[in-house]
Design brief:
- With about 350 residues, the chain is an all-alpha fold.
- The chain has one domain (about 1-340): ABC transporter involved in vitamin B12 uptake, BtuC (Orthogonal Bundle), CATH 1.10.3470.
- It has helices at about 1-30, 35-50, 55-90, 105-115, 120-145, 150-175, 180-190, 200-220, 220-225, 230-235, 240-260, 270-280, 285-310, 315-340.
- Helix 2 packs across helix 3, helix 4 (about 105-115) runs antiparallel to helix 7 and helix 4 crosses helix 11 (about 240-260).
- The longest helix has about 35 residues, at about 55-90.
- The chain is globular, with a radius of gyration of 20 Å.
């Protein structure tokens, strides 16, 4: 524990430095490369209100195309990683993530219904949040009703079943949608993409993500108490039911906002918290900040590679599965070897 505690500041500083380097790299590369000095001058002039002296096309690329996209990738990665770390700590299960609990499927169904109804981005976010909250409520309610001998196995199996049910709902929404306008939009959105992110989209989703992450951050010191039994946690002055409700709502809010902004992107909420615990231990006050930074960097790196590595851009939701599967298996092998 002492080693993990002393390792935390170094790990967080290294991750933050790597994140800054990734942001700088993401702004400069692409189909229309921009020199690092030009990127700095454009961003500085945007902050100070002065003139950058850079060509208008370069300014438009930095401020109107790559700027919102970089901000969205950072926010979505951090949000999904924070939600995954919170769910895993809350349910005392390292296999829990927004995907396995059915939250992502619930959010996707809600957002798909909003797209089917041709609603604006604010309504899509609200529908996504409602769908994710309904999915979590169903999973937790079924687990409480069954009261199986193995609560972890019951939780995972219930989440898989509920996720499949909501997946069927998504298929139904796609089936009844307009094949020329709504169906392509829903299909493309479900694959996950930052291509169409606009500044006004960030104005509606970033405050919700920030509020959810702030709530989780304020509760980070009490999260480890939930590892105890309900009676022991209550004797320490923690209102277990109220805290669980706040954590579920906050984690679902950031997941829903991320889904509304970029579509369904898996594996981030499962892999990144595992990597953070492997580096700094299992204490949630250390796992949450590192997960935020690692998740933001991972998502930005994946999105940047998706748009520069191939002639045709690959959806980040597809790329995270290709990257996340071997990464999770490697982390799992390292964890088991350490424990054996």
């Amino acid at each position: 524990m002492i080693l993990a505690r002393t390792r935390f500041p170094l790990a967080l500083a290294a991750a933050a430095a790597g994140l800054v380097a990734l942001v700088a790299w993401s702004f400069t590369v692409g189909r229309f490369p921009v020199a690092p000095g030009d990127v700095f001058r454009v961003l500085w002039s945007a902050l100070t209100g002065g003139s950058s002296g850079i060509a208008q096309n370069a300014q438009a690329i930095v401020l109107e195309i790559r700027g919102p996209r970089v901000a969205a990738a950072l926010a979505v990665g951090a949000a999904l990683a924070a939600a995954g770390a919170s769910y895993q700590s809350l349910f005392k299960n390292p296999l829990v993530s927004p995907d396995i609990l059915g939250v992502s499927a619930g959010c996707a169904l809600g957002a798909g219904i909003a797209i089917l109804l041709s609603l604006p981005i604010g309504a899509i976010q609200a529908f996504a949040f409602a769908g994710g909250l309904v999915a979590v409520a169903i999973v937790v309610g079924i687990c409480a009703w069954i009261e199986g001998r193995d609560p972890i196995l019951t939780l995972v199996l219930t989440g898989v079943v509920v996720g499949s049910l909501f997946g069927a709902g998504i298929a139904l929404v796609k089936y009844v949608s307009d094949p020329y306008n709504q169906l392509p939009a829903i299909t493309f959105w479900l694959l996950g993409s930052f291509t169409g992110v606009l500044p006004r989209d960030l104005l509606t989703t970033l405050p919700a993500i920030g509020a959810g992450v702030l709530a989780l951050g304020l509760l980070r010191w009490r999260m480890d108490v939930l590892a105890l039994s309900d009676d022991e946690a209550g004797s320490l002055g923690v209102n277990v039911r109220a805290m669980r409700a706040v954590v579920i709502v906050a984690a679902t809010l950031v997941t829903a906002s991320a889904v509304a902004l970029a579509g369904t992107i898996g594996w981030v909420g499962l892999v990144i918290p595992h990597a953070a615990r492997l580096i700094v231990g299992a204490a949630f006050p250390r796992v949450l900040p590192l997960s935020l930074v690692l998740g933001a960097g991972f998502m930005l790196a994946v999105d940047t590679l998706c748009r520069v590595a191939f002639a045709t851009e690959i959806p980040p939701g597809v790329a995270t599965a290709f990257v996340g599967t071997p990464a999770f298996l490697a982390l799992l092998a390292i964890t088991f070897r350490r424990s054996s």
